[in-house]
User: Fold this.
Amino acid sequence: MRELRNYIDGKFMNSERKFDVSNPVNGKPHAVACEADQATVDDAVAAANKALAGEWGQMSVAQRCEILCKVADKIEERFDDFLQAEVADTGKPHSLASHIDIPRGAANFRVFANSIGSFATECFEMDTPDGSGAINYSLRKPLGVIGVISPWNLPLLLMTWKVAPALACGNTVVVKPSEETPSTATLLAEVMDEVGMPAGVFNLVHGFGPDSAGEFLTKHKDISAITFTGETSTGKAIMRAASENVKPLSFELGGKNPGIVFEDANFDDAVEGIGRAIFANTGQVCLATERVYVERSIFDNFVHALKEKAESLELGWPDEERTNFGPLVSKAHQQKVLSYYRLAVSEGANVITGGGVPKFSDERDQGFYVEPTIWTGLSEEAKCVKEEIFGPVCHIAPFDTEQEVIKLANASEYGLASSVWTTNLARGHRVAKALESGTNWVNCWFLRDLRTPFGGTKMSGIGREGGVHSLNFYSEPVNICVKL
Ligand code: NAD
Ligand code: 6OD
Assistant:
């Protein structure tokens, strides 16, 4: 079995405690990870602080960009290693990981290497009482050591979405990937080694959340900021821990995202787009649609078409080209999703399709699969309509008016993403503007220029990532005032 070690100050380090990493396709361990204890996290943070004052801190922006582009090149050169590792940890289809996860892992480094060079600062001329005047200009400085805590659903993509801008701004990082998916983070450490990243700039600690590497990092007094993607409840725990040392936080949290289909939508496009938004990555996407609202005149036809879509998903082996639906990430997550499948029935749902565990009659029966599932008939107050499930499931409800559906869509404590499907573009703009989400799509889903702001309103997060928004978080302006 592959051993996944911690990476500190440019060296791969073993540990006494280890934990197994399982393949969700068959439930079997495929790797063993070294768990970082408090002393190991202390070493990682100390190495990251030391590196700030060393070669990395002296580099020009152009030199930093050059090395970040080399990281992107190397990820592409080792594409198959990253693909195999991501698929082994998550069970996701090759077709998905090879089109989204791994290319975006590389692209994140290139995008931020290219954008840091044009990250402008402010300048203000001012009058002075003696008439000579003064100029104020700001410089952006790195924050210091960034604690990066990332989830398991898009492991490489979401981790590099933080590491790349943090390094572009001149910080150093200590990364704690999810305990479920530590493999691609370990490969990234190898890549950092191979491209000659100065020791201590990128540090990796494996482990869990509470009372483990995650908590040790968030409570550490010698880190400067924490960037976290994961569950809202974990965000609350991190906020409490980080308050001890008053650290800036960037949070991308959960969602319960609505998709709205009007009668005048292109029907086939809406079925295809909403279907992808529900079932892609087995519903384990923070932006996934779990609440669908369909105008009453097309409701029955839409439910029928979406049922056919769900039932046509291919639950093959990850490396088969036709496979477009994989297992959930872990036994615990499978049990959580199945508990919602049971709860929906007791809350009065009509189960249009799914609701159980598929039968394969091979080793996948020991894996963590659930059936793609669609419900109708639930009250808007039902837990299954209110709470994030993070599985391949949605509830579909009819609506009659634009005003009504805006109210229904906004009646959530979350505000991450929404989609509106209509051929009336004026209505598309109007409804998108009225929705209380950080990202609002019209006639599409998951499409995004990486320079745009990404993040959630309400309980879905704090701050924005993407382009200049990331660069703003990972640097701080200092003002210099010069009297002329
Ligand atoms: P999670 O919150 O369970 O874990 C995320 C990370 O936090 C892991 O590395 C975990 O070890 C660590 N962690 C857990 N408890 C901790 C603690 N007390 N202190 C420090 N670290 C701790 O999330 P997950 O289950 O890995 O991911 C699924 C969740 O992430 C869903 O809620 C989903 O909506 C959310 N998510 C949000 C976005 C977004 O951009 N808004 C993107 C992806 C996932
Ligand atoms: O595409 C991205 O940059 C991004 N942050 C996607 C988030 C997906 C959540 O699961």
In short: Residues 149-153, 158, 176, 178-179, 208-210, 214-215, 218, 229-231, 234, 237-238, 252-255, 286, 388, 390, 416, 456, 460-461 surround nicotinamide-adenine-dinucleotide (ligand 1) (CB under 6 Å). DSSP finds 16 helices and 23 strands in the chain.
